[in-house]
């Protein structure tokens, strides 16, 4: 699987987080469409099928991520 560059992942995560705030504030259809587009791109870029998993995977690949952090694991 091809891996997205960390700079690309950071940009996608930042865009998604910003759009999530905008969506919560006004619920605009255009914002929702853009969120869907970013979510799709994140999923493709991280090899996942769910935006939440994609966000976790993307953040895990960013510089400074604590790769030994098991706080995301469920038991």
UniProtKB/TrEMBL annotation:
Pfam family, one: DUF5133
This protein's name: DUF5133 domain-containing protein
């Amino acid at each position: 699987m091809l891996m997205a560059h960390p700079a690309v992942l950071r940009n996608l995560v930042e865009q998604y987080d910003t759009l999530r705030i905008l969506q919560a504030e006004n619920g605009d259809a255009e914002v929702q469409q853009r969120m869907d587009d970013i979510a799709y791109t994140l999923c493709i870029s991280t090899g996942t099928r769910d935006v939440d998993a994609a966000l976790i995977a993307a953040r895990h690949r960013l510089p400074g991520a604590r790769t030994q952090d098991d706080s995301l694991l469920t038991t």
